[in-house]
Amino acid sequence: MSITRKQSGFTILEIVIVFILLAGIMAFVGPKIFEQMERAKVKEAEIRLLSLANQIQLYQAETRNTLQLWTLCCNLREAACHLRSRTI
After folding, report:
1. CB–CB of 83/40 below 8 Å?
2. pLDDT truncated to tens, each residue of the chain (88 aa)?
3. Which H or E element spans position 10?
4. Contacts of 74 (CB under 8 A, 6+ apart)
5. Residue 57 in contact with residue 73, Cβ under 8 Å?
6. Exposed end of the chain (fewer CB within 10 Å): N or C?
7. Rounded distance, CA 79 to CA 44, Å?
8. d(CA 85, CA 72)
9. Is 49 exposed, middle or buried (0-12, 13-18, 19+ CB in 10 A)?
10. Which residues contact 69 (CB under 8 A, 6 or more apart)?
């Protein structure tokens, strides 16, 4: 009496092929994801700079102190514009 065993599972070749396909997909998609993450960081920095500039303007309106803070506010807006131009 001969006993035959039914083998189930994947062969090493099938597993290697799946890993190669996944690596190929990640090689294509990975840089796009990291590029989008970099753009998001730049956009967040731009928003924070503009928010800080607006807060400085509100402070100036409340305290009527305009000399040094106005320069800082302009510098922050210029930095935000520079960030925006870098991402375009």
Report:
1. no
2. 566 666 678 899 999 999 999 999 999 888 888 888 888 988 898 888 888 888 877 877 777 766 666 677 777 777 777 777 765 5
3. none
4. none
5. yes
6. N
7. 13
8. 20
9. buried
10. 56, 59, 60
